[in-house]
Write a structure and sequence with these properties.
By secondary structure, the chain is an alpha/beta fold. 42% of the residues lie in helices and 17% in strands. The strands form 3 sheets. A 7-stranded mixed beta sheet has the order 3-2-1-4-10-6-11, sandwiched between helices. Strands 7-8-9 form a 3-stranded antiparallel beta sheet, with no helix packed on it. Strands 5-12 form a two-stranded antiparallel ribbon. Helix 3 runs parallel beside helix 4.
Length: 336
């Protein structure tokens, strides 16, 4: 027991002496000079790099703010310019058929890209249909929905060729009537007759936007030709390139011209003639508005095709008809 106490005492003494020596060494080291130059230099370099990076970021931030300001000014200027552009009024006759919805949706997607645009859709129907009403409501376009049914004696029968009787005459005239009732002589705009089966380039609407009286341009895939077009020299129309009834007063397709709104409103009797001979419907309106010499050639002096007289193929419903006879046709509640 006594020997154990001596050993513990010795251990304690040794531990105490080692602690004292360690403390004395530490105190001695505190008094020694320290070479911290390298550490200070490294810290200085880090501060310099950090300051340089901050300066770069500040410069980039100012540059981005400047670019953002330019973009905002550009958008503001574009919006201001858009609000002052003459409105384009596109009058589109349409009638119920299997491809009607597809045609109108395709057309609406084109029109969505056109600034200051008003779509006047006129149904050949005694009533406005839900299909067209819903399509227009969902189109995102500014629109007017009208309807008038073509008189029975002027309406094409199921198997009649499309050229047998003029189509869309009463519908276009109703669109013109709406403009006369809802717009004033001081309103700036352009009226275009846009059939629902044609194909239109965005550029076409830029071309017609500033029409003074009646502007004209080529139309592709029409009249049995690759294109029909006015012939222009020195900014004036001097004739027409057309193979079908070229002696018509204005041998042009409906898609090949636009009319200044004020000109149309000022000539209160101007309209399409329902009884016009085949091919003369366009001339029946234009003759009351303008002379050939007053036409305004667009599309690079009428050398570029920006609209095409395309036609959607009539769907063949042979299988559908067979299934309908068996009482197992497709669900008529699903809209096509």
């Amino acid at each position: 027991m006594f020997r154990t106490k001596i050993k513990l005492k010795n251990v304690f003494v040794v531990y105490f002496l080692v602690s004292i020596l360690g403390l004395m060494y530490a105190l001695m080291q505190l008094g020694q000079p320290c070479d911290c130059t390298q550490h200070l230099k490294s810290a200085s370099e880090l501060v310099h790099v950090k300051d340089k990076k901050i300066s770069q970021l500040q410069a980039e931030s100012k540059s981005l703010q400047s670019e953002l300001k330019k973009l905002q000014d550009k958008v503001t200027a574009e919006e201001t310019r858009s609000q002052t552009l003459p409105t384009i009024y596109a009058i589109t006759p349409t009638y119920a058929r299997l491809v009607q919805k597809a045609e109108l949706i395709r057309l609406s997607h084109t029109f969505l890209h056109i600034k200051n645009f008003h779509w006047i859709v006129v149904e050949d129907s005694s009533l406005k249909t839900q299909l067209v009403a819903d399509l227009l409501a969902e189109s995102g376009l500014k629109y007017t929905h009208l309807n008038v049914e073509t008189l029975k004696e002027y309406k094409l029968k199921e198997n009649d060729p499309s050229w047998l009787k003029p189509r869309g005459v009463e519908q276009r005239n109703l669109g013109i009537q709406w403009l006369r009732q809802n717009r004033e002589l001081y309103d700036e705009g352009v009226v275009y007759f846009a059939d629902d089966d044609n194909t239109y380039s965005f550029k076409l609407f830029d071309e017609m936007r500033n029409t003074k009286r009646v502007s004209v341009w080529p139309v592709g895939l029409v009249g049995g030709l690759r294109f029909e077009r006015p012939l222009a020299e020195n900014g004036k129309v001097v004739g027409f390139y057309s193979a079908w009834k070229p002696n018509r007063p204005f041998p042009m397709d409906m898609a090949g011209f636009a009319v200044n709104l004020q000109l149309l409103l000022a000539n209160k009797e101007a309209k399409f003639d329902l009884k016009a001979e085949r091919g003369y419907v366009e001339s029946s309106l234009l003759q009351s508005l303008v002379s050939i010499e007053e036409l305004e050639p667009k599309a690079d002096n009428c050398t570029k095709v920006l609209v095409w007289h395309t036609r959607t193929e009539k769907p063949k419903m042979k299988q559908e008809d067979l299934l309908q006879k068996q009482g197992i046709g497709s669900d008529i509640n699903i809209e096509v």
